[in-house]
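EI: anyone free to look at a 67-residue chain?
SC: sure, send it
EI:
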Amino acid sequence: MINVLDLRPGDKLQLQDGGVAEVVENMEDGMWVQVRYLGSSRQKDESDDAVELCHAQDIVKILPPSA
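SC: here you go
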């Protein structure tokens, strides 16, 4: 499992559902981060900048900065 406390804004995450999300804010509770979905069915279109909470158990891995 990913240590959510180590995540910083701008980190990109691979999620369980196959989507990718960018960390917007770390809630610093060890379980939740606020994210913006990228290239995912959750992102309705390119102008959709909505942010949502993402739970630690939904994160598969942290993607390298170039991803």
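EI: The first strand starts at residue 12 and ends at 15.
SC: 👍
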